[in-house]
Amino acid sequence: MSRREAGPARTVTLPYYATVLQGGTAVVAKRLGNVAVTFAEGQVRGTGRGQASAYVDRAAATLPADIQERITRKRKAGDQDAAIDPLSIPEVRAAVSARQLRAACRLPADAGNSSNITSDDRPLRRRRAPFAS
Asked: Which of 23, 32, 67, 75 has the maximum number of C-beta atoms within 10 A of its C-beta?
């Protein structure tokens, strides 16, 4: 983050929020927090570090049993659908998409000059596979 004019050393505390979206639209978890940005004397750029976490129910990320079976079943050469990618089937693709979780961490628009603020938006890391193989 930067400030308009260099000046004395200063620490600014900014609020942030971390959210987890399911299927790209539904907010399933949201946490609020603060991050301190420190400006050294005579510097226009400051540094800060923060960490966010959120918890989501395992069932929200688990595929239904029938979809799991369609994705993981053994296929043999010569089977009629052996060469078909299960994710090309609309209902399978929709079920997988609905279970996708995305985490985002943002500063509110009124927390500072948004052109000087960067944020992180990436898929949520899973600690365990969403279905058994």
From this structure: 67
